[in-house]
């Protein structure tokens, strides 16, 4: 219980600091929300109407007063109203994250499975050609930006060989309520694969190093002395001890995954939370940006907390006598 309250207190402090910092940074943005909202009709808007819009949105108030009003409404459960989508911020986040969840979950699972598998093979054939090839691929993927990988996949599998959709989360004319599951999955293939490559290389390299370290440990020598060998030794002993850093890295990389989703959703015109974040930034929708930043902060904090908890739990289970 004490540990729970400690994490909860740290979360509250983190959210407050992130909210204050984000609000201050957005106040220096060169984007005028009213000009971005009105668009080409700005020349036909008289100064009186411009002032009324600014007063309605609270843009004529001092910075500290605007933040105070926003923070007080947040404490009451009101995240504000999106000027871009003309609906409550909470509703925008809920709808857009429902679309992004399939992309994030698919990329998260695929990067973990591929990363652990490649790291396992590299550790199994250490300093041989499979290990060298996997290491080179992992280093290459770790250095490539997500948007470049996404554009390369689009050029190959949507333009050069048009076997997959070029954009969106469903076919034109459909929406979230009418799109079939097979249609959604087909549109997910390229974004999920592009986003999964973002963290696959790091997981593969960490798993490889851990397997190489475990193979030199005393308990592996003891297991070999008892008759364990080959793939049985690797699967039942080595992988059990090497999987811990991979799982922890997976949960700790949620922030990096969500950052990559911003670029992937923009390239594929995927109507998720990342696309909404970019649109809100370009249009100066401060309430929506604040809500998305706090929501993403909460998810990243949850991932880091789960990662720290897994380290404790898995290490305790491996330290038991029957774990060897």
Automatic annotation (TrEMBL):
One of its GO terms (cellular component) is plasma membrane. It is a multi-pass membrane protein. The keyword Transmembrane applies. It holds the Pfam family BPD_transp_1. Keywords: Cell inner membrane, Cell membrane, Membrane, Transmembrane, Transmembrane helix, Transport. One of its GO terms (biological process) is transmembrane transport. It comes from the Bacteria. The keyword Cell membrane applies. The chain crosses the membrane at residues 7-28, 101-126, 138-159, 288-312. It is found in: Cell inner membrane; Cell membrane. Signal peptide: none annotated. Residues 97-307 form the ABC transmembrane type-1 domain. Belongs to the binding-protein-dependent transport system permease family. OppBC subfamily. This is ABC transporter permease. It comes from Salmonella newport.
